[in-house]
Amino acid sequence: MNDPDNKKVLIVGGGFAGLNAARTLGNKKGISVTLIDRRNHHLFQPLLYQVALAALSPADIATPIRGILRQYQNVDVLMGNVRSVDFEKNEILAGFGTLPYDYLILACGANHSYFGHNEWEDHAPGLKSLEEATEIRRRVLLAFEMAERTRDQEHRKRLLTFVIVGGGPTGVELAGAIGEITRYTLSSDFRSIDPRATRIILVEAGSRILPAFDAELAQKAARGLEKLGVTIWTQSAVTHIDENGIRVGSEEIAAATVLWAAGVEPAEINNELGTTLDRSGRVIVEPDLSVKGHPNVFVLGDQANFGHGLERPLPGLAPVAIQMGRHCANNIVRDVKGKERKPFHYFDKGIMATIGRADAIVQTGFLKFGGLFAWLTWLFVHIMYLVGFRNRMLVVIQWFWSYVTLRRGARLVTSRNWKLAKRVDLANRYSMSLLLTGTGRRKAGSKAASKKASKKASKKSSGKKAKPAARKKKPSRG
């Protein structure tokens, strides 16, 4: 049980920053921790694209937050949405009420940015949650299924055109994964279409893809994508997206599936804090990650702009969030012990991106390499960052199976609406039963035969009128 005299630390967000802060504060004397998240699970976002393209199942990269933190007796977990923060009263307003704090850690992550065109989201989903990943999987797989049954060549061409907007790591990994599916996984599964003829376009507004990487590595990645059938458009700004496709500049591309990986913006709660924000809406934090004028409030991860002693602010990467979470928690422990805080210093371990099967690029310090060894490095690092032994083992097994067989085990087309799915399933089962058994034809034939027989019987009758059969009274439906 938590001691009421303990310092109350409130953590908003169960991502990399919030989770690592909670772990670091776990079982620390004199501290009680409450972590609030709108979902009940921690999500390993770097592998989310593999759920979206059917390489992994959602449970492989998500773990219940309560299960992760169960060993820490001073940590409570609540599921809910935080609406606002009151710095004067030291409390937050959540959907279920108010909660006081002595220290507040805001690690709410980021959302998609459509650069003022939020109406595009319905036609071009991004990739930040399991719901979005499974929706992308549904759209991609459904496009092949619909292309298989249509006879209209123009419609088929549109269905087999995929456009990914954004040439960063997420966009590159999505494009490469779709290329792999069309070249290997689905290549022999259909009879009327050839998935290898699929058109995949990666659209980037800048001069090249992967601008955070060395130009030579980015060029290597571009060549790898081209081998998978991906066409790269650079210096191409998107001007419109709708249900028919996408417009790049003045050129229209008919595409049934458009995916968004072009930009992010911090959580909306930043706009309610009344603090100094940068142009992207991130909170400009102090060297110890606290908010200026509020030393007991910390902002971490994608919400924060940390540029002290750096040429440019730190990017929104998982390693940055992890180190911020641990450092912030350690500073709170130092506060409780009456010690001086330490400024945050990021240890850059490098960046990496995967292009496809046995192909990736890695950049760490002066070391830059690609190919199979980079891919193995990418595998090892991501497995080590995964939370939970079970998840690591499942992912290793799935990857090994996919590598050896070129198959993907999570190719399920599911409906977003469970009621709609139930009605569609019942309708399909009924129509299939009629199709397979010919019940409909037999019923129609039996009715015609009975009418014919009754006419013949009436002709042969002796002329005596038969008493009409008594009608059965229909039961009331009231």
Give a brief description.
By secondary structure, the chain is α/β, with parallel strands linked by helices. The chain is 35% helix and 22% strand.
Topology:
Elements: E1 7-12, H1 16-25, E2 31-37, E3 41-43, H2 48-52, E4 62-64, H3 65-69, E5 75-79, E6 82-86, E7 91-94, E8 97-100, E9 103-106, E10 110-112, H4 130-149, H5 153-159, E11 161-165, H6 169-185, E12 199-203, H7 215-227, E13 230-233, E14 238-242, E15 245-248, E16 251-254, E17 257-260, E18 264-266, E19 283-284, E20 290-291, E21 294-299, E22 304-305, H8 318-336, E23 351-356, E24 359-364, E25 367-371, H9 372-385, H10 389-405, H11 418-437, H12 439-460
Parallel strand pairs: 1-2, 1-9, 2-5, 9-21, 11-12, 11-17, 12-13, 19-22
Antiparallel strand pairs: 3-4, 6-7, 7-8, 10-18, 14-15, 15-16, 20-21, 23-24, 24-25
* Strand order in space, largest sheet: 5-2-1-9-21-20
Nearest-angstrom radius of gyration? 29 Å
Name of the top-level CATH class of the domain at 119-262 and 357-405: Alpha Beta
Low-confidence stretches: 428-454, 457-478
Residues in helix, %: 25-40%
The count of strands amounts to 25
Shape: elongated
